[in-house]
Amino acid sequence: MSPSLVHHTLTKGDFDDDMDLSIVGLGVEYPPNRVGPDALETLAERFYPQSEALKKVLSINRFTGIKTRACVGTVDHPLVNQPTAPTITELNNYFRKEGVRLSVNACKKAIEEWGGNLDEITHVVATTCTNSANPGYDHYVMKELGIGTDTEKVLLHGVGCSGGLAAIRTAANLALGSSFRRKPARILVLACEITTLLVRSELDSVCQNQEVRIGVCLFGDCASACVISNGIGGSTMSEPIYELLAWKHKILDNTEDDLGFDVDPLGWKVILSPRVPKLAAASVPGAFEDMIDSLPSIHKGCALTTATDFDWALHPGGSTVISGIQEAMHLTPEHLQASYEIYMEYGNSSSATIMSVMNRLRNSGEGRENVVALAFGPGISLEMMMLKRPGAVPSLPIEDVD
Predict the structure, then answer these.
(1) Cβ contacts of residue 197 below 8 Å, gap of 6+?
(2) What are phi and psi of 219, to 5 degrees?
(3) Residues taking part in catalysis
(4) Which pLDDT belongs to residue 299?
(5) Phi, psi at 133, each rounded to 5°
(6) CA distance 106 to 167
(7) Beta-strand (E) ranges in 96-175?
(8) What is the DSSP letter of 35?
(9) Could you read off the pLDDT of 65-93 as tens digits, one per residue?
């Protein structure tokens, strides 16, 4: 971290050119099972009578654009084939085993790529919206990995699909605090979601309340992790995967009822209003401009000021969310290729998805030097981050897409 940041107060929203924060390890773990749209139809036929609401949900299910979803089980999994939907107790017990296992595997991949020692990990920042037990699942992940009990940890709650980026933002601010004290920071960030076992609870609401609930058509399971470094000390000089340049968090006014994930005796219930795609798309241009303004160095010497000059790692909340932001920012499908691919192959795995998109993007060959990461969560909350790919050819301005 540059001495200027330590000895001088920055204007709110400004970012120093030399924060020296980077992601040095990245890992993603999907469960082995894949189910297509027919799995939802099978469960609906087994346990629920036909109704207008169910017909609409099943019709939507065939046209989400998702080919397969990653799942902890098949359509014959015992928990979704009981006479009634699994209780929150049963879901918690399952998450404690399978969620921890997925998380440990994702963390091991990130730690192996980083190449450092476990005793160098200074903090752990975790998130999930599909488990709320105490102690949190991060406690058991750390125990399984062998991370020391004096390692500082934070578990984020209430942030839903934006949790992955919110966790990285939180870790970045913790790393800056360590830099201010001239101490090393190696922060393990992890996200895990098991959503597919909520299928029966969601179908219960569809049939009992005659609600058209599209969340049951979108979500999959995943764990993802990364290691963030502040560049001070350490036993290994890891090559950065992404440098962290800037970030922005914002709550969209009066949208609390549009996007949420409420606790229920049978797990959690997705709240997803039809306004979400338009609300999300409308919020991005202003947030993008604010972040660019906070980083004047990013367009020093060239006109990198338009959205098309960046690659985009967008959390794939749904096909209309992706296409709405694509249109609002005048992007092409190529700008969002990693997001489309993850969405089609695995579905929306809530907070764990964004790091999967980032992982796909960095393995997609040559790309633009700078990347905009973006996710939305309950609130509605917006999380945006500017990343840089070291070694990439500097981006050149291209014409906007009409």
Answers:
(1) 72, 73, 77, 79, 80, 86, 91, 94, 267
(2) -90, 145
(3) 161
(4) 60
(5) -75, 160
(6) 15
(7) 123-127, 152-156
(8) E
(9) 999 999 999 999 999 999 999 999 999 99
Distances (CA, A) of 254 to 37, 261, 279, 283, 356: 34, 16, 11, 13, 30
Beta bridge partners of 376: 382
- Give every CB contact of residue 379 below 8 A, 6+ residues apart in sequence: 251, 252, 255, 256, 259
Rounded-to-integer distance, Cα 96 and Cα 100, Å: 6
- Strand, helix or coil at 251? strand
Determine what percent of the chain is predicted with pLDDT higher than 90: 81
Q: Which two tokens stand for residue 180?
A: 């201010």
CB neighbours (10 Å) of residue 211? 13
At 204, give phi and psi (nearest 5°): -55, -50
End-to-end CA distance of the chain: give it in Å, rounded. Answer: 41
In whole angstroms, what is the distance from residue 38 CA to residue 302 CA? 50
Strands (DSSP E) contained in 170-295 are: 186-193, 222-229, 242-251, 259-264, 267-272
Distance CA 312, CA 306 (A): 12
CB 300 within 8 A of CB 200: no
Task: Verify cis geometry, omega within 30 degrees of 0, for the bond prior to 60.
Answer: no
Q: What is the mean pLDDT of residues 365-385?
A: 94
Which amino acid is residue 216, in one-letter code? V
If you count them, how many residues does the chain have? 402
88: number of Cβ within 10 Å: 17
Q: What angle do CA 82, 85, 90 make, to 5 degrees?
A: 90
Residues whose CB falls within 8 Å of the CB of residue 139, separated by 6 or more in sequence, listed in order: 153
